[in-house]
Amino acid sequence: MSVRHALLALLSEGPKYGLQLRDEFEARTGEVWPLNVGQVYTTLQRLERDGLIESDGEDEVGPQKSFRVTVDGAAELDTWLRTPPDLSAPPRDELVIKVLVAIRVPGVEVRDVIQTHRRHAVELMQEWTRVKRDAGPDELSLALVIDAELFRLDSVVRWLDTADARLRRAGTVPASGPPSALPDPGPVRAVEVRR
User: Fold this and answer.
1) Domain tally for the chain?
2) Are residues 77 and 131 in the same domain?
3) Rounded distance between C-alpha atoms, residue 195 and residue 192, angstroms
4) Nearest CA among 2, 48, 51, 60 for reference residue 29
């Protein structure tokens, strides 16, 4: 999440104060990602130093100092909004690493590890579904955040199911068996993306 660019987006609507920016950031993101006011002021100082925003001229940062986006800041925001994130290589996902490592750990049944994480992901999906059900019809930001989280968790569950099926087909030995009997999962390679 880029707090820097989120603040630029909020300032593109017009001049705002630091505390106002924090409150609007939290409201716009469905109040799912709390933002420390110190982080807001530190980010504002950096944006001003970089010439992406300007203030009303007071020397000290404080609750009464108003900020507005500059032409360079608007250009930076536009570039950020239109630049896709780099999805060409797998992220360093902790869950994927756990499963890959568990394959080789003596005394650990990797399929138990998979099922533990699968149960947890399904429970989280159920919790988010309850939150979505209880959200008001005017809470569009919250609904969008929850939808994104539900899609992410659904993909986690599908990956865990696929990993479990692949391990079953590969004939992995029980945890008591020798680790050398397990198939080598091979290196993870970056995917080449055609444009």
Assistant:
1) 2
2) no
3) 10
4) 2
